[in-house]
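Continuing from the previous page of notes. For each protein in this section, the sequence appears first, followed by its structure tokens. Read the first protein now.
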Amino acid sequence: MAINVNLSIGLRAWIADNLARGAPPAAMIEALVSRNFDPAVAGGLIDAFISAQAGGRPLPELKVRLDMEAPRYVYEAPRIAPGHVIRACDREIRVLQRLQSPVLATLERVLSDEECERLIGMARPRLRRSTVIDAPTGADVTVDRRSSEGMFFRLRENPFIAQIDERLAVIMNCPAESGEGLQVLHYGPGGQYPPHFDFLVPSSPASSRSIARSGQRISTLIVYLNDVIEGGETLFPEAGLSVVPRRGNGLYFEYTNSRMQVDLRSAHGGAPVIRGEKWIVTKWMRSRKFVPASDSQGGATDAAASTAVHGRVEASAKK
């Protein structure tokens, strides 16, 4: 068994700089472990860099292949509050179902019918063809497998959006400032989204820069804005779970723990819409305050880096 460990730009630079300064390997491994790296992975990373340096080879760039078992994802206490009812700002949200692996909860009446209709109305004129990040290049591209239209609201764009941002943050038990702007998606008949991850893959340049600004994504809350006549379920293949869209209901799940491990069982997708249409709004939370690309470099928005990475997305372990 071997695992591929993706290298962020910052991690590679840190290891290379410490090697150049002659830092003791044991101290480097200890420093990585203190940052919640698995000890075996930390040791393997440093050994790979030292081996490349000693052999006169280029240092690893995007990933390191380690001949070892993949560390098991450590399930910690869920961030979402326990109990049958979550008190969120201006209302109480009933919990309909919970799952432990992956950490998941279905929620009742996160948004009212009126709020759902208002979000659809505000989003409709701003819809554009949905994109994904091409992993090798980091480019924002359209692909046939993601057949939807979408748009992003800015965080607290107006009082109505701010009220929803705050409510969802309380439900997710995170500061509102850690949340990305709400994304509304629309799927017509036949619209679907194959299984994917919401966490960001560091080997993508756009994702690596986004992680450096705002930290990794840690959790997702999807709220269904309409009833789908047939199809459109949210599927979790690893858990054998299918969630039926119901207007105003929410689907919460998390996939990054305090060690910054990511949960491969969180893979999920949208089943094809057979009849009718499907509208959803999504909130993603980060491990730190969310800083859009436009705020940090005066360029394009962070929409590309805020989309689940596709293309050559690799699991952390391969046989």
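Done with the first. The second protein uses the same format. Note its length before scrolling.
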Amino acid sequence: MKYFSKSKGVVKLNFPMSKLTWFQTGGKAQVLFIPENRLDLHLFLKSFKEKKLINIIGGCSNLLVRDGGVKGVIVKLGSGFDFINFESDHIICGASVKNINLSNKMAKKSIRGFEFLSTIPGTIGGSIFMNSGCFGSEIKNLIKSVIVMNKNGDLKELEKEQINFKYRSSGINKNYFIIAAKLKKNKGSKIAIKKKIKKYVNLRKKTQPNKVLTGGSTFTNPERKKAWKLIKDSGCENMIVGGAKISDKHCNFLVNTGHANSKDLENLGNKIRSKVFKETGEKLNWEIKRIGIR
């Protein structure tokens, strides 16, 4: 605990990650650290030498923590990273701001381009790292620069041109922690923006699972293919493993029916991958991040 002696943040030992993940499954984190601000994070990273034992997480919507738990320290950014500041030609947004909150805030300020984020669970930091997107938009289109901290606690600002954004990937080094971003500030019609948000939210409710224990999309789309269609065409729709099943609304979503563990969910995902590859020759890659001991 000496690494946290100067910290103003929260430190919890043997913390059950099922309390944070959207699937409500997973073992314990050896240490959960919620730094209050940049200085907190800096001091910890500067002093903690076993860098491989550090994991940073976001809103836990696209995260599967294995049942054996996680060794080392899980870092979840706290309230000091939850801010939105409006500058003359850009917006500065903290990494722990929820996507839906950012979208709604931009709508109130008549700033367009953020509407699609109202339907993506999780936080801006995770969305940038994964280059999240839907409805023909990706977060890369909103970025001016990204502010990161490396595992030694040093700050660096990455201009958009330095970031190798691709489909569901930013290419940002895994040893960098995204702590904030500078975003584009394009004015639009408040009425049109709110209308688009409503349209997207209603469409999501009709086509994707809600009010159940689920995560985000399970697999990324192969090039020129849709993961959900490959799953459906391969006859996987009714697959069940233990307490885990495929969503009735959208077959690229896994659901904890109430008594699943992480092993059930991961085994179901791998079972789907195997059958899709056998039937179509297409390899599905996990979009959900999986961490911890099996």
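What the second structure shows: The radius of gyration is 19 Å. The chain has three domains: 2-79, 82-206, 209-291. We return to this in next week's lecture.
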